[in-house]
Amino acid sequence: MQVYAIDENRLVSAINADKGVNYECPECRAHVRLRRGKERQPHFFHLQKSSKCRLSQKGIIHLHLQNFVKSLFGAAEIESRFPEIGRIADVADFQSKRVFEIQYSPMDLDEAKGRCQDYESLGFQVIWILHDHTFNQSKITPTERFLRTKTCYFSNMDEKGQGCIYDQLEEVKGKRRLSKSDPYWVNLAVLNKLPRSKLPEELFHRSQTWPLYSEGDLIDLSLKGKFIPIKLRKIRMISRLKEAYLTWLHINLSKSCR
Questions:
Q1: Quick check: 120 and 143 in contact, CB under 8 A?
Q2: Pick from 124, 147, 27: which is nearest to 76 by CA?
């Protein structure tokens, strides 16, 4: 759901836009128009659909997270354009030079690395928020593994805007997440540079790669002396067991039909 467009080089919200008027998409520069109804949130739609335009693919949950992050910073901007690198940030705080990238859908590794390198080349630090819909599952993609080496958290926010952004401790082996802790709510409004302090063994990898940490996350708890051994919960394997059972059933049914 796209809620911002360009009107004569000015960013305009769907709430303040007029129906029947051609606007421009901030990302692909194609024509978009306003759509609204009694039971529908105002938003823009592309006159010609484009599978390559990232803005046109954003849903209501993505929008809720953008607005939530923006509310934490007075001067932050949604859909901020960075023409020098050809990027549009989900949320950008120019005062602190930080970009918040929200990822709900799958993303390939090259795109993830490209975004980080592009923003960092301008002196901006990127904080990633990965949604449970795609991420934090038992299988870990190369993209998620890479992003977890950055300042990176998860979110369980739903279509009503209810949920949180959280941190967790996890046990990973190969391409599998074997277990994880209960969520720890974080406050992104308070971000600090990682000091040269010794962290527990469980957080050692973060001390090597995370540029920032947030209030309420595991690094913050450790620095405040509140980090205690965390009990990890085994990730449910029902789906994998079901898949194995169906494979076994298919093989045996095939044999019986010969």
A1: no
A2: 124
Burial 218-253 (b: 16+ CB within 10 A, else e): bbbbbeeeebeebebeebeeeeeeeeeeeeeeeeee
- Annotate 140-153 with b (16+ C-beta within 10 A) or e (fewer): bbebbeebbebbbb
Cβ atoms of 217 and 194 closer than 8 Å? no
Q: pLDDT tens, 55-88?
A: 666 678 888 898 899 999 888 988 888 999 999 8
Q: Which residue from 67, 131, 75 is spatially nearest to 103, judged by alpha carbons?
A: 131
The strand ranges marked E within the chain are: 4-7, 10-13, 23-24, 31-37, 40-46, 77-82, 87-93, 98-103, 125-131, 152-155, 165-167, 170-173, 176-180, 184-185, 187-193, 212-215, 233-234
For 141-170, what is each residue's pLDDT tens digit?
999 999 999 999 999 999 888 999 999 999
